[in-house]
From TrEMBL:
One Pfam family named in its UniProt record: p450
Species lineage: Eukaryota, Fungi, Dikarya, Ascomycota, Pezizomycotina
Residues that span the membrane, as ranges: 12-35
Annotated heme binding sites: C538
Record-stated family: Belongs to the cytochrome P450 family.
Keywords: Heme, Iron, Membrane, Metal-binding, Monooxygenase, Oxidoreductase, Transmembrane, Transmembrane helix
Biased composition (Polar residues): 475-491
Name listed for the protein in its UniProt record: Cytochrome P450 monooxygenase
PROSITE patterns hit by this protein: CYTOCHROME_P450
GO MF annotation list: heme binding; iron ion binding; monooxygenase activity; oxidoreductase activity, acting on paired donors, with incorporation or reduction of molecular oxygen
Length: 590
């Protein structure tokens, strides 16, 4: 019986082949379920690319194939003829919603900051560089207020005028000296300007942030280096040379001095940002980058730089108190001293918060200011009539300096109101549109222009494109989608004329003051979002504007910017911000 029974069970078992087939089918079924689970999950009702929703990598292959990734992203709503769309650019994560409608963007930034907070993306990108910088924090986060309190006074007119402005002036005056040397040696040929603007802005921001000694400033080394170069036609080796002139438009290549370790460490900041920004997994990308000696050394050197600068600051403060204040770091240490005393505790002068808020000046203010200036020199070369009018207005405004045959002093630059200068700076910021997308996350379910966006969705808001630098979107108004926030509702400025919105035209920012019979600068002439807006808009705006005004005044006062021919194209290069691909100047002393 027992034998019979075992035979009966054995006959019921499937053959190995059938068993294998069943296992394969089950595995395939399971894999298919995993595949379906991992596919992008569009948010109902928001337009998207259908083909991208059917592949694991979503829109990523299209983004990679595009010439400019960020431009591809902010152009998506226009491609869908809608003010919003969604893209699948973060693998295995929820879709990202793009908003390009100017009024909706302003509404979100300025009035709905509770529903749309900073989110995690910036924290991931800034990551290891300055984790305690308030830029990375959510507004509702504990500690955010304390960070803002620490930096609160650094953009007041008093701090800007007394502490920041002389440092800014020195940095850009050094650039004028450098360009005098270079233009003499270039003998009318163009030369690269982006590096010089980049290093000058670094000097300016570092001096304001932590008071870099003159001997350590990059421009001091650059000027000494260029002075040491022979005049062209260059004598053959040995020694540094100015390359021989090849043709009319060929740029003169100036060799560069080796940066010192401190400067090298600071220049590593935008590099690290760029590494994490390009990656779908920024945290891992930064950790891997730190395995390379170059980045690891830079991180160590940054720490020792801030330690040294902190010691220098403390010596100053202990010796002279508040009146010895020379930079933002001094100010933050002074505040910490006062706060510690009040709270009856020992001050923490080397706290990561003070360190990261100091580096925050560089993170927020270096690439941004340098890049706006790089675009500005290009616009000047392309628009000689703007340049000529600007120079005339500056000479008229600073008539005493003109009569005395000197440059305008910093006090004069601060106190003299020159509408055309403000218009040129504003138009440069608008056209350059160096920050194109900023991120937010929904803290609760939200409605934007009638579209439903679930809680915890990543949002990218466009600071460029339709309505700002391109003709506005002709958005069909679908009744069940609701209407745009109207101009009156958002108190927006009037829209730009679609016919000339793409042109560089500073005059658009001027209006007649009928009563006084003069032209005045009108900051509300039309839409601009170069510094973003609302409670989390650019913290350093005033400092940025002061740098731009100072640089523009000193450079136009001293130089005429000639056409650089084929080097003058407006092609962009997407780094941390949108830079011009080429930035050359051909200078004539005025
Ligand atoms: C022309 C130069 C500059 C431009 C175009 C610019 C633009 C911007 C933009 C678009 C944002 C994003 C705001 C948002 O997410 O809503 C921002 C944020 C910020 N910027 Fe600037 N910026 C400039 C200069 C500076 C300077 C000189 C500093 C120096 C301190 C600075 C510090 C910051 C900080 C700290 C934030 C973060 C604010 C927050 O999260 O609350 N920026 N900037």
């Amino acid at each position: 019986m027992a034998m019979d029974a075992s035979w009966a069970w054995g006959s019921l078992l499937p053959s190995p082949v059938v068993l294998l087939a069943i296992v394969c089918l089950l595995s395939a079924g399971l894999l298919y379920q995993v595949y379906l689970f991992a596919l992008p999950k569009p948010i109902p009702g928001i337009p998207y690319n259908l083909h991208a929703s059917k592949r694991l990598m979503g829109d990523i292959p299209d983004v990679r194939r595009s010439k400019h990734m960020r431009q591809w992203v902010w152009s998506q709503p226009r491609a869908h003829r809608a003010p919003l769309s969604q893209v699948f650019v973060l693998p295995f994560r929820r879709p990202t919603v793009i908003v390009t409608d100017y009024s909706a963007v302003v509404d979100i930034l300025a009035r709905r900051s509770r529903e749309f907070d900073r989110g995690q993306r910036i924290r991931e990108i800034v990551g290891l560089i300055a984790p305690e910088f308030h830029f990375t924090m959510e507004t509702k986060e504990e500690g955010f207020k304390a960070h803002k309190e620490l930096v609160r006074d650094l953009m007041t007119p008093r701090f800007l005028n007394e502490v920041s402005s002389p440092r800014i002036y020195d940095a850009f005056a050094a650039l004028v000296h450098l360009w005098h040397e270079k233009s003499t040696k270039a003998m009318g040929q163009p030369f690269c300007a982006s590096h010089d603007l980049y290093m000058t802005t670094l000097d300016s921001i570092c001096s304001v942030a932590f008071g870099l000694d003159e001997s350590k400033r990059s421009l001091t080394r650059e000027i000494d280096h260029v002075r040491s170069l022979p005049m062209p036609p260059a004598s053959p080796a040995p020694g540094p040379q100015v390359s021989p002139v090849i043709s009319d438009a060929a740029p003169v290549e100036f060799s560069r001095p080796e940066p010192n370790p401190e400067i090298e460490a600071l220049l590593d900041i935008p590099e690290m940002l760029s590494i994490s920004q390009k990656s779908g997994f920024p945290w891992i990308a930064q950790r891997l980058a730190l395995l390379r000696p170059k980045h690891a050394r830079a991180m160590r050197n940054r720490q020792s730089l801030i330690d040294t600068q902190t010691e220098n600051s403390l010596k100053r403060l202990f010796a002279g108190g508040e009146k010895e204040m020379q930079c933002a770091l001094d100010w933050m240490l002074w505040r910490e001293m006062g706060k510690a005393k009040k709270e009856e505790r020992a001050p923490d002068f080397h706290s990561p918060v003070i360190r990261d808020e100091t580096f925050g000046f560089l993170l927020g203010g270096h690439d941004t200011s340098a890049t706006v200036l790089s675009w500005w020199v290009k616009y000047m070369a392309e628009h000689p009539h703007v340049q000529a009018r600007l120079r005339a207005e500056l000479r008229n405004g600073h008539s005493v300096a003109m009569m005395e045959g000197r440059w305008p002093a910093m006090e004069g630059i601060i106190s003299t109101h020159i509408p055309y200068l403000e218009a040129v700076v504003q138009e440069t910021l608008r056209c350059a549109s160096i920050v194109t997308l900023i991120s937010r996350t929904t803290t609760q379910d939200a409605q934007v222009l009638g579209y439903h966006i679930p809680k915890d969705t990543s949002i990218l808001l466009s600071l460029t494109g339709p309505g700002l630098t391109e003709p506005s979107l002709d958005v069909p108004t679908t009744p069940n989608l609701g209407t745009k926030p109207s101009t009156s509702q958002t108190n927006s400025p009037p829209p730009w004329d679609n016919a000339d919105v793409h042109l560089f035209r500073p005059e658009r920012w001027l209006k007649a003051d009928e009563e006084k019979g003069i032209e005045v600068f009108d900051s509300r002439a039309g839409p601009i979002l170069a510094f973003s807006t609302g409670p989390r808009g650019c913290f350093g705006r005033r400092l940025g504007e002061m740098q731009l005004k100072t640089a523009v005044t000193l450079l136009i006062w001293n130089f005429e910017f000639g056409s650089t021919g084929p080097l003058g194209g407006m092609e962009i290069k997407e780094k941390f911000v949108n830079m011009p691909r080429d930035c050359y100047v051909r200078l004539k002393e005025t």
